[in-house]
Amino acid sequence: MVHHSNLVPWKMLAQRTGATLRWLGLTDEGRLDLSDLNEVVNERTKLFAFTHVSNIVGSENDVALLAARAREVGALSFVDGAQAVPHQPVDVSALDVDFYAFTGHKMLGPTGVGVLWGRDLDALPPFMGGGSMIEVVEMSGSSYAKAPERFEAGTPVISQAVALAAACDYLTDLGLDSVKEHEIALTARLLDGLRSLEGASVLGPDSIEMRGSAVSFVVDGVHPHDVGQSLDDLGIAVRVGHHCAAPVCRRFGVPATARASSYLYNTESDIDALLEGIERVKAFWL
Q: How far apart are CA 68 and CA 63, in angstroms?
């Protein structure tokens, strides 16, 4: 259920180092299949990487449980929180993870900037050299600054960082508990509506229990790209494609999906317009 950004880098690392990449499967409901968790995450595991909330099927994982399994076997845990941080309160200390990452553009901030939180970033060597990340430079060797500076070589993305801080302040002032409550109501309305539409089906949980607001769906007999184009003609914006999670589409036997991602700026009338739009898409194509 992970985004390519939390899969491809680990594949590249495995190819470079000879490590073995192993993974957990998905249930028919689009949730993480934990039946073989103890076999997949075992004493040989060095890093357990997983998503907090899936960007394609919307499932929310029990991060504390998964991080605890990593800790049991002496592995590090890495969590992609891009679809969680903008939508609900997140306490990385309570989750007891080692690394937690998220991006600015999913939380009303700019593109090109994100956050990596780590339990002990000073234990990691720099991945890039340059200005601002050093402590002392000699021709015979260099010492590096403490985190986070040691990972921020070169000219910083000043405007993006300022804008991301403004987005954080805005969401904090608004109250992420309120954002979550608002999204639950919209997501429940959308899931109920899709359930009542003949020929429409949801990839992922069809209830609001442990799920985010991103809802991927398909319409029988209509390619998702055509669904998206037709909705666009009606002034309704959805995302279509494999959503940087191509293995999930193959798992469920679909070429792509349409995805509706409601957020704090959406209303019940937006959900109703989408459902009505899907009916019009069906009438046009079928």
A: 8
Domain-terminating residue out of 105, 140, 174: 174
> What torsion do the CA atoms of 23, 27, 33, 35 make, to the nearest 10 degrees?
-120
Task: Give the pLDDT score at 280.
Answer: 97
Instruction: Mark whether 247 and 266 lie in a shared domain.
Output: yes
- The C-alpha atoms of residue 14 and residue 184 are separated, in whole angstroms, by 38
Nearest-5° Cα angle at 165, 157 to 149: 50
Tell me the per-residue pLDDT of 6-59, one tens digit each, with 9 for 90 and over.
999 999 999 999 999 999 999 999 999 999 999 999 999 999 999 999 999 999
pLDDT reading at 245 higher than 90: yes
Give yes or no: residues 220 and 166 share one domain: no
> Which residues make Cβ contacts (< 8 Å) with residue 14, sequence separation at least 6?
20, 21
Catalytic residue positions, numbered: 244
d(CA 213, CA 88): 11
**Residue 198: phi, psi to the nearest 5?**
-65, 130
The answer to whether residues 161 and 182 belong to one domain is no
| 87 and 141, same domain (yes or no) | yes
Summarised one tens digit per residue, pLDDT across range 143-165 is 999 999 999 999 999 999 999 99
Determine contact, residues 147/118, Cβ cutoff 8 Å: yes
Domain span at residue 239? 176-285
